[in-house]
Amino acid sequence: MTSNVTAVSYGLKVTPTGLERLRSTLATHGAQVLSESASGDDRYQVRVLDLALHDATAAGLAALRHAVAEAAVPGFDTALVPAALRAASRKLLIMDVDSTLIQQEVIELLAAYAGKREEVAAVTEAAMRGELDFAQSLHARVAVLAGLPADVVHSVRNEVKLSLGAAELVAAFKAAGHTVAVVSGGFNQILEPIAADLGLDYWQANELEIIDGALTGKVLGAVVDRAAKVKYLREWAAAEDIALEHTVAVGDGANDLDMLGAAGIGVAFNAKPAVRAVADAAVNMPHLDAVRHIAGV
Known about the structure:
Elements: E1 3-11, H1 16-28, E2 31-40, E3 45-53, H2 58-70, E4 76-82, H3 83-87, E5 92-95, H4 97-101, H5 106-112, H6 117-128, H7 134-143, H8 151-159, H9 166-175, E6 179-187, H10 188-198, E7 202-211, E8 214-220, H11 226-239, E9 247-251, H12 257-262, E10 265-269, H13 273-278, E11 281-283, H14 290-295
Parallel strand pairs: 5-6, 5-9, 6-7, 9-10, 10-11
Antiparallel strand pairs: 1-3, 1-4, 2-3, 7-8
Helix pairs in contact: 5-6, 6-7
């Protein structure tokens, strides 16, 4: 079974030595290079190799991804992407928010106003490594916010910074006619203006309860957790009539794993080790717009 797959290498420094090692690994595993091109800018470099892969089964592609990862040299990463995904006329990009679309963890910014930032950060880190139940950990972290004036939400909005290349990534997908969504274990009150500014098609997060101008330390409704994220991926793809094989999911924590696994390609963005170990691809540099090169946008 022969099929076309594209190897997309990207990094701050894509070296000739690294590329030669990549080509050797591909050849050893029966992948034939059909064409090769270079792009990028003054921030990072990109090299695209179109391949004919003799074993294009899921197992064959997984084995090749493992071999490429094992042979990687410091400085750049390589994503192996089905050519059909890159060529799809309509795609869905779905992203996590905290530490992915934006640089910070919003719960930690809020907790700082309660004098609990370090305590909450430790719980967040454990939850993102998959050591704690996400919903339970979220309720525990939000509880420390009880009594804070609602104005802190506005203050935190002003502290939030998009990840480098985030706006460019969204703009590129939108300009090409694709759909862009985000789903977050964070909070709607912070996400709403970001979603509006970026022109996102879909977005969903948790809702902080506010009564009489103060946070109650609770969230309203069901928590947006690992299961909810993959649910929204499937729902939004179906609503747009986009096959799951033509979706791209990006995240950094354990609660993103199901979403990354269900998408056509799952990308770990500066992620925890447990996420990098199972994702289809990894971006280990601060430029989120590298995802557009992976997706062929």
